[in-house]
Amino acid sequence: MASVAFSGAAAAATAATTSRRLPASAKLSLSSSSSSSLKLLGSTPIVSRLFLNPKRCSAAPLPSRAFNSAAAAPKCLASDLEQLKLAREDIRELLKTTFSHPILVRLGWHDAGTYNKNIEEWPRRGGANGSLRFEIELKHAANAGLVNALKLIQPLKDKYSDVTYADLFQLASATAVEEAGGPKIPMKYGRVDVSAPEQCPEEGRLPSAGPPSPADHLREVFYRMGLNDKEIVALSGAHTLGRSRPDRSGWGKPETKYTKDGPGAPGGQSWTAQWLKFDNSYFTDIKEKKDEDLLVLPTDGVLFEDPAFKVYAEKYAEDQEAFFKDYAEAHAKLSNLGAKFDPPEGIVIDDGPSQSVPEKFVAAKYSSGKRELSENMKQKIRAEYQAVGGSPDKPLQSNYFLNIIIVIGVLALLTSLVGN
Question: Is 110 a catalytic residue?
Answer without folding.
Answer: yes
